[in-house]
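Figure S4 source data
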Amino acid sequence: MSESTSMNIEAVMQYLPHRYPFLMIDRVVELELGKSITAIKNVTINEPFFPGHFPGAPVMPGVLILEAMAQAAAILSFKTKAYAPEEIGIVYFAGIDGARFKRPVKPGDQLVLKIEIVREMRGIWKYRARAEVDGELAAEAELMATLRDNPARDAGQSPQA
């Protein structure tokens, strides 16, 4: 399938259970089902981690760059599987390999997340992920994840809670 589309923040929030301060995707600019996604995270000085990481020289923690990549990968997987928002489960990390950080990400940067599906086998997804700022590689990794039912939904709670 080669449908290409974009998603605003309202659409993103239908596919991710994360909310402030942990929602790391502001917009999807391109999505090719079964193949790839390009998403945006606008990094602002108002991020809750900057006062402590690091005072006087704020840098986005690498683990949060990986989380942003994983959230983009989750949207790609949910959309590829054609899950409706009310059917959304949760994507759990299964592994991170080859994570490399090439440049710091600072307030005012726009993090462009480029995720490609490498394969999906027996419920385990493998992705190639890149994060860029101004066309320059900031971080890269291979991510593995699995889709599971949302325990909140199974308990009768809203999956968006």
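Figure S5 source data
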Amino acid sequence: MAFNPPLRDWRGKTVWLVGASSGIGEACANLLYEQGATVFVSARNSLVLNVWAGQRGERDTLGRARAVALPLDVGDANALHVAARLIEERGPLDMVIYCAGYYKALQADSYNLGEMLRHQQVNYIGALHLLDAVLPILHKQAAAGQGGHLCLVSSVAGYRGLPKSLAYGPTKAALTNLAETLYLDLQPLGLGVSVVNPGFVETPLTAQNDFRMPALITPPQAAQAMLDGWARGHFELHFPRRFTRWLKLLRLLPYSLYFPLVKKATRS
């Protein structure tokens, strides 16, 4: 079932990818650029972004660069507004992707309020700052019949409570819920909304894990799965499915079965 207008041809499209300096975000920016999109990349690491944009010199039909670095911190709401206005000047914003993320394994016996709040600020509040900047633009585009698509990168860690995910999991659960509600509000206007729930992807964040990560995939594989999902008009993009399908089944279990099963599966 297609929940969104399918996105198959990226030539001439404008994409803003927030959280593009490494991992899934960087790989997605690479693939979208290769597919012909104009890609604006944002993250805190200005050096990495400027190098990325500087290595991609192609221009659109009006002679404008197709790779543009807009360094910023997602905690700076004003910076996101400034960037959004700059991008809007280029024309319709066809895709906005929130891929900024922070992760540190945490359990209740080592509870750290600072870490809890840092996860909240990067993984969720930053997304709210982005929405504040782009929703007025997307509403204007919808009224003009130009459409647009909003994508939030969440995680299967938000499906249900998991060990060592005390700080990370709740923020991803909130992000998925946010995407579901946004879909209900924006889809009737002709705007697309999607949520990405990856399993384990080989990134600087997952490199911290001290356990074997099942069905581990590379960032380019994750990026391709995202483009495949958008091409099919999916709302939820989850991958690799040989892993995420099992986690979806776990969501259906009553707590009397879920808790013992997770304890047994994660026992060291």
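The chain has one domain: 14-266. The chain has a mean pLDDT of 94.
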